[in-house]
Design goal:
Elements lengths: L6 E2 L2 H13 L12 H4 L13 E2 L6 E5 L2 E2 L6 E9 L8 E5 L10 E2 L17 E4 L7 H4 L1 E9 L6 E6 L6 E5 L4 E2 L6 E7 L6 E7 L6 E9 L5 E8 L21 E7 L7 E10 L4 E10 L10 E6 L11 H5 L4 H10 L6 E5 L10 H14 L4 E4 L2 H4 L19 H6 L12 E5 L2 E5 L11 H11 L8 E6 L9 H6 L12 H6 L4 E4 L5 E8 L2 E2 L6 E3 L5 E6 L17 E5 L3 E7 L4 E8 L5 E8 L2 H5 L14
Parallel strand pairs: 2-11, 4-12, 20-21, 21-22, 24-25, 25-26, 26-30, 29-34
Antiparallel strand pairs: 1-7, 3-5, 5-9, 6-8, 6-10, 10-11, 13-14, 14-17, 15-16, 15-18, 16-17, 18-19, 20-32, 23-24, 27-28, 27-30, 27-31, 32-33, 33-34
Helix pairs in contact: 5-6
EC number: 3.1.3.2
Subunit structure: Homodimer.
Catalytic activity: a phosphate monoester + H2O = an alcohol + phosphate
Length: 629
């Protein structure tokens, strides 16, 4: 006999929130909300868990094997899920939930909970597939076998078989529980530069609170005596979230985040490190061994290679919802960079990281995806609208793009050398480069705290030692031929460059980078809407303008260009890709745009410039002089 149990929450409220997340058309909001084809939708937001019905069928079953993972200390493993349904339909789907048993405290079922129902599904799943994916004849046989890849996310897992599609889910069967051998293990290290040039920070995730274990890093020069550095521990709670779904159906306990500061590094030397936790009984839990190369001294004349991109998102290697429907290019970008490890030294991901949009489980998925990169080179991030924006939360844009996260997960999970990580602007010295990273989700206009920071970052750059001055932020505060920007008539984020272009010119910024628009575009040397040079592939002699680059094709759905001719646009690419800059010395820089699909170069230019060329007077950038002798 089929049993039904309607889970009741404030349905109108949640439906309204979900509608806002998908259909918002705020004129100051993320322009993707004005174009569904460009936007893409967080796949988990398509599942209306508040409409869930329980219809356990005695002849239906779902089993997952193996049920114990990570026996060789691996952090991911493939499993097989077998499905049997006596009344199959094309809308049947399979989802994995974690923890395997859920807390129903925020839900009010109409009748008592059946004790045999495990799990009680009151949270969004981590991911899902339709049951007929592997068996085209599923609707006739009711049999299916699916492959899922699970990562260690601290808690156990269970699968559910559903009918009714995503909008009217009905739970038909639940699986056995699956778990990792050590769910608390230290995992997914993320390197970042510290506030001093000779400092590297390591942040990682575990499920060890400070009253259970002491976190630290064991590290040192490769092949030499290792030392230990302590780590601080942070986390965040459900009440830290600003709204739904992060505070409701998307919430999941995030674990603990540990950051250690490795100091007094020798320039360009190779170091090895391991993450450690000393338990209260005196035993130790260790990660595997990792390595990194220490950063160069500011101004050091050596080969220095930088990767820049934005808007990657996350994808699933098992072909589940995210990979097929949301960020089709993120795995290509990630895998191409993994293959090329050893040929670059630092990465800048300039906003919109996992597009979790309030579904907290997706942050683990993202840190696992980028671990091969972030554990080996500094992985510097910027804040995007999908990390920060939420109404009445202090963000410059009053949109719900973060899904209620309001910046908290990004600020705690990824270290940046900012004075206040709630304000995600900071500067980085890397050899011959000075990077000034802006936070486009906070006001940057003249007179603001951020504007003062940006000017100070530019003004304090010693161009004799650091000739390559780079600005980067998430939204396009410069120039873009994006279709939506063209419709606004601005070819930029509204109010974008009106305050900043005089700073770019005064302090002779070489290149300004942006994400947010999911494509690639490069301008000529620009000043006040015009090209100040006819050169396109090689720039030499006096500095006279800034090159603006949109590099938001890291993986999320691509953004269309306008059909209007923009005379300042030199190269456009409606594809996924990233930029690599190579500084050979103080006078020679190579810029390359590479497609994520093959890693080949599709656009490039070089800059050859001497110190005197940066000092010399140019339009809008002349130092005052006196006739006195």
């Amino acid at each position: 006999m089929e049993m039904k149990l309607k889970l009741v929450i404030v349905s109108a409220f949640i439906s309204c929130v979900l509608s806002i997340l998908v259909e918002s058309n705020n004129v100051h909001g993320d322009f993707y909300t004005n174009n569904q084809e460009m936007m893409g939708v967080q796949p988990l937001s398509k599942i209306f868990m508040h409409e869930l019905e329980l219809g356990i069928h005695p002849e239906a079953s779902i089993t997952a094997i193996p049920n114990l993972l990570g026996l060789k200390k691996q952090s991911s493993e493939w499993i097989t899920v077998n499905v049997k349904h006596p009344n199959p339909t094309a809308n049947d789907w399979v989802a994995v939930f974690s923890p395997a048993t859920f807390n129903a405290s925020t839900y009010a079922p109409t009748i008592g909970n059946p004790k045999y129902l495990t799990p009680l599904l009151v949270s969004a799943p981590i991911k899902y597939k339709f049951a007929n994916e592997s068996n085209p004849d599923y609707v006739n046989t009711g049999l299916g076998s699916l492959k899922f890849r699970l990562i260690n996310q601290r808690y156990d897992f269970a699968f559910g078989l559903f009918s009714g599609g995503l909008a009217k889910p009905k739970l038909i069967a639940t699986s056995n529980k699956i778990s990792f051998a050590n769910p608390k293990a230290p995992l997914y290290p993320r390197l970042a530069l510290g506030k001093s040039w000779d400092e590297m920070t390591v942040t990682w995730t575990s499920d060890y609170d400070i009253n259970e274990a002491i976190p630290f890093v064991k590290w040192g020069l490769a092949g030499e005596t290792q030392t230990r550095s302590p780590a601080g521990t942070l986390t965040f709670t459900q009440t830290s979230m600003c709204g739904p779904p992060a505070r409701t159906v998307g919430w999941r306990e995030p674990g603990f985040f540990h950051t250690s500061f490795l100091k007094n590094l020798w320039p360009n030397q190779k170091y090895t490190y391991k993450l450690g936790h000393k338990l209260t009984d005196g035993t130790y839990v260790w990660s595997k061994r990792y390595s990194f190369t220490a950063p160069p001294y500011p101004g050091q004349n050596s080969l220095q290679r930088v990767i820049i991109f934005g808007d990657t998102g996350k994808a699933e290697r098992d072909g589940s919802n995210e990979y097929q429907n949301y960020q089709p290019g993120s795995l290509n970008t990630t895998d191409t960079l993994i293959k090329d490890l050893g040929n670059y030294d630092i990465v800048f991901h300039i906003g919109d990281l996992p597009y979790a949009n309030g579904f907290l489980s997706q942050w683990d998925q993202f840190t696992e995806m980028v671990e091969p990169i972030a554990s080996a080179v500094p992985y510097m991030v910027a804040s995007g609208n999908h990390e920060r924006d939420w109404p009445n939360s202090g963000s410059f844009y009053n949109t719900p793009d973060s899904g209620g996260e309001c910046g908290v997960p990004a600020e705690i999970m990824f270290y940046v050398p900012a004075e206040n990580r709630a304000n995600y602007w900071y500067s980085v010295d890397y050899g011959m480069f000075r990077f000034c990273i802006g936070d486009s989700e906070h006001d940057w206009r003249e007179g603001t705290e951020q504007y003062q920071f940006i000017e100070k970052c530019f003004a304090t750059t010693d161009r004799q030692k650091q000739p390559w001055l780079i600005f980067a932020t998430h939204r396009v505060l410069g120039y873009s031929s994006n279709e939506w920007y063209a419709q606004q008539g601005s070819f930029e984020e509204p109010m974008g460059r009106s305050s900043l272009q005089k700073l770019w010119q005064k302090y002779r910024v070489d290149i300004a980078y942006y994400g947010h628009v999911h494509s690639y575009e490069r301008t000529c040397l620009m000043y006040e809407n015009i090209c100040v040079s006819s050169a396109t592939s090689h720039f030499s002699g006096l500095w006279n303008g800034t090159i603006h680059v949109v590099v938001g094709g890291g993986g999320s759905h691509l953004s269309k260009f306008t059909s209007l001719k923009t005379t300042w646009s030199i190269y456009k690419d409606y594809d996924f890709g990233f930029v690599k800059m190579t500084a050979f010395n103080h006078t020679s820089l190579l810029f390359e745009y590479k497609k994520s699909s093959d890693g080949n170069v599709y656009d490039s230019f070089t800059i050859t410039r001497e110190y005197m060329d940066v000092l010399a007077c140019t339009i809008g950038s002349c130092a005052p002089i006196t006739l006195a002798t």
